[in-house]
Write a structure and sequence with these properties.
Layout (H helix, E strand, L loop, with lengths): L22 E2 L9 E4 L1 H4 L9 E4 L2 E4 L5 E5 L6 E8 L10 E7 L7 E6 L8 E4 L15 E2 L14 E8 L2 E6 L2 E6 L8 E6 L4 E10 L3
Antiparallel strand pairs: 1-15, 2-5, 3-4, 4-15, 5-14, 6-11, 6-15, 7-8, 7-14, 8-9, 9-10, 11-12, 12-13
Length: about 210
């Protein structure tokens, strides 16, 4: 159904987005619906999901070995909402949300990355020459810097990502502020992945609203 304006489901240009029912990508209890890709564990026939654990409704990522957790389902057009935070005792860190991930599982797979590196949330990384158009003044081709200064919260506080992937457009909203837009984006169904990229990080309330015509 159409979501109400109160939900704020609009593109930055003001056009309304029609979305279907909320999909809980993370059930708050375990990693059902996800699979792991961690090459260092795979080669020793160890559980590739073991980098990730769940406690009190929070998905915890150890950060090492390097790899990612990804949805088994494929998604093309959606509004993705999630909360993340780093641990002040462990310091700043790195991770990312990989969008429309396609092709083989490698470090890192073809996708558009919504950056989670501390102070850089809202940046894009283009992985595997994913087709997309970004602001030429803010990009080196692979890395597109966010529109505004960092608006992340203090270490230890939860931050909110709202990621709109709608046909050829991707918008990155960090804590309610539009930080980046890509247009002319390659359109495909793909996996959604969260990176284990060397730092302990926590996620919660990972939900997706499919965009419907």
């Amino acid at each position: 159904g159409t979501i109400s304006a109160a939900k704020g489901q609009f593109m930055n240009d003001g056009s309304p987005i029609k979305v279907g029912d909320k999909v809980k990508l993370f059930n708050g209890k375990d990693t059902t619906g996800w699979k792991g890709f961690v090459p260092d564990l795979a080669k020793d026939n160890k559980d590739q999901l073991s980098v990730w654990s769940v406690k009190d409704g929070v998905l915890q990522c150890a950060g090492r070995p390097i790899g990612y957790i990804e949805t088994i389902e494929l998604y093309d057009n959606f509004v993705l909402e999630l909360d993340w935070r780093f641990d002040p005792a462990k310091g700043e860190g790195n991770s990312g949300v990989l969008l429309r991930t396609i092709g083989d599982d490698v470090v890192w797979p073809k996708s558009m990355e919504a950056q989670l590196h501390s102070k850089n949330a809202g940046d894009f990384w283009n992985i595997g020459e994913y087709k997309a158009t970004v602001d030429q003044k803010r990009t080196d081709g692979r890395h597109t810097v966010k529109l505004h200064a960092t608006n992340e919260k203090q270490l230890g506080e939860w931050n909110h990502y709202r990621i709109v992937v709608n046909q050829g457009t991707i918008e990155l909203w960090v804590n309610g502020l539009l930080q980046n837009v890509a247009t002319g984006v390659e359109e495909n169904k793909g996996r959604i992945a969260l990176q284990s990229e060397g730092a302990y990080i926590e996620f919660k309330d990972i939900v997706l609203f499919p965009i419907v015509p």
